[in-house]
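INFO batch 0412 | record 1 of 1 | parsing
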Amino acid sequence: MPQFDDITEPAIAVLVDRFYAKVRQDTVIGPVFNQAVSDWDEHLRTLCAFWSSVMLTSGRYKGNPMAVHMRQPLEPAFFSHWLDLWRQTAGEIFAANLPHGFANGPNASPRASSSRSSSGQG
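INFO prediction complete | emitting tokens
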């Protein structure tokens, strides 16, 4: 049963915690994350700040996620798997009318859509 009817800081924290608990146990993407992340508590705080910035336009995240991810041994199939797990988790946490905001990962927010449109992407 979904726990949240709105995207808030507490809702983002629950989503991030639940999702990355699954990721850490996942046989496909877990090894990549577990090798790359040495301090999960700090990483989860960073991820909450990232999603707060994306979904709530809070400006809490200060960083370059593309640069960080480019250093990892990622394969195209990893993102598809990550996205499937993300959608599943968002569906568990948010009311049916909300998962679209998180369902497509980082490209789902109105802010991301407008930046893709203005940059010619998407």
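INFO post-check: Residues 109-122 have pLDDT under 50 and may be disordered.
INFO record closed
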